[in-house]
Amino acid sequence: MVRTLSITVWLLLILLPVGSGVLVLLLTSFDTKAGVSLAVFSDLLLDYESILSSFLLAIVAPLVACYLALWMAPGLLRKPRLQQLLSPLLSIPHVAFAVGFMLLMSPSGWLIRLVETMTGLFPTPPAGWPLPEKSLVTVMVVLIVKELPFLLLMISAQLKQLPVNSWLIRAQSYGYSNRQAWWRIVTPELLRRLTLPMAAVIIYSLSVVDIPLLVGNNTPGLLAQRVYEWTFQFSVESQVKAITGAWILLAMALLLLLMNSGHSALYRRLALNKKVIRPGRFNSTRAGGYAWLILAALSLGVLVVLILQSLSSHWFYPSLWPASLSLERWQTESHYLFEPATHSLWLAILSAVIGTVAAIVLLQRQRQKARQSFYWPVLMALFVPQVPLVLGWQQALGEQLTDGWLLWWVCWSHTVYTLPYAYLVLHGAYTRFNGQWLVRAQSLGYSARGAWWRVMLPMLKQPIAVAFAVAFSVSIAQYLTTQWLGQGLTPTLTTEAVSVASGGDWRMGSLYALLQTLLPLVVFILVGLIRTKSYAEYS
Amino acid sequence: MRFIAAISLLLATLCFALPLKASEVNFYAWGGSPEVNNYLRWAQKELRAEGIQLRHNKVADASEVVKQLIDGRSNADIIWVNGENFHALKKAGALRPIADEIKALNNISPELNWQSDFGEPVDGLEVPWGVGQFNLISRPGLFSQKAVSAEALLDAAWENKGRISYPKPPDFHGTTFLKSLLLSLHPQQSEVFQQPVKTANAKKLTEPLWDYLNKLHPLLWQQGESFPSSAGEQISYLANGQLLMAVSFNPNDYKTLVNHGRLPAGVQRHTLSDKAITNNHYLAIPVSSNNAEAAKAVIEFLLSEKAQQRKADTNRWGDPSVLKRTQKGDKSSALLAPTDDFHASWQSYLEQEWSARYQ
Question: Which residues form the signal peptide (chain B) (predicted)?
Answer without folding.
Answer: 1-22
